[in-house]
Amino acid sequence: MGAPSQSTADKKATRDAYGEALVELGASRQDVVVLDADLSGSTKTADFKKKYPERFFNVGVAEQNLVGHAAGLALSGFVPFASSFAMFLSGRAWEVVRNSVVYPKLNVKLVASHGGITVGEDGASHQCIEDFAIMRVIPEMTVICPSDFNETKQVIHAIADYKGPVYVRVGRPAIPVIERENYKFQIGKAEVISEGKDVCIIANGVMVNEAMIAVGLLKEKGIHASLLNMATIKPLDKEAIVAKAKECGAIVTCEEHNVIGGLGSAVSELLSEEYPVPVIKVGMKDTFGKSGTWSGLLDYFGLRAKDVVTHAELAISKKKK
Fold it and tell me: What residue range is the signal peptide (predicted)?
């Protein structure tokens, strides 16, 4: 595995990584085009617009049209990246995504910023906590939520090469960058961040950093936890999950999403058929968010390392004797 992964003092937003990756792709690939729904400053597609204005299209506040235009460009041989806030791209445009992009298997990349409660002060109306669920339920859709700046850049390059529709959630706040050695993102493959046999924590997005802190806190208590970064929610890395269920006997999932329908549900669905063990979910407990600082909201809704520790101890207590 090389040197252990660890969070650094450096903090960057995953949406910034998306903007940088688009510019890199624009330089190396003439077939990459970018579309936005009048939010390019927030989604960071403005970086691409400045560099390659002839390949940038602002459709205005019309998310259904955004997706429809992307579908047309894909049919014309381009690789379109279409962006808006997660609430609008996965919510308002869902039917067009389903019928105009995924059903015909078009090569459209949907990258949604401002997902989860870390949108912060914008409040519950903009804090999309349902996108994993409503995107992964579409047949043959790929769904990804990277953990930090560096992984996000790898994700964007990987989906540009992948043929088919993809939904990626990136975030608004600057979060810790994770220091890794020789890590290469692969669609559908989990990253093993730590090894332990007492419990396995499976996390994605902003919750990976919290889970890493939790692993350290658990170790201080004599509990040794495995940690999987499950950036790809669909397709799941079934082999890795089942192997950890057999090794550890208890699972904790961590996501900035409703506990209904997201990563935790996907893991539970798999293990209920393949290898049933206790699965405890850390996430939004079927409730809407609130307006506040993103950090304060993680505290308020119990999405912190200490909460992961509590859930891990509960999962261990439920193991089969």
Answer: none
Instruction: Give how many domains the chain has, as a whole number.
Output: 2
User: Using CA atoms, how far apart are residues 96 and 94, in angstroms rounded to an integer?
Assistant: 5
Strand order in the sheet with 32-36: 56-58, 32-36, 79-85, 109-113, 166-169, 142-144, 232-234
Percent helix / strand / coil, the chain, rounded to 5: 45, 25, 35
Answer whether 0.90 is exceeded by the pTM.
Answer: yes
Query: Domain end: 143, 177, 211, which one?
Result: 177
Whether 157 and 195 share a structural domain: no
Q: Which domain holds residue 18?
A: 11-177
Q: Are 212 and 5 in contact (CB under 8 A)?
A: yes
Mean pLDDT of each 10-residue bin along the chain, 321 residues long: 58 97 97 97 97 97 97 98 97 97 98 96 96 98 98 98 98 94 94 97 98 97 98 98 98 98 98 98 97 96 98 94 64
**108/226 same-domain check:** no
For residue 180, CA distances in Å to 38, 152, 201 come to 35, 13, 18
Residues 191-249 pLDDT 10s: 999 999 999 999 999 999 999 999 999 999 999 999 999 999 999 999 999 999 999 99
Active site residues: 63
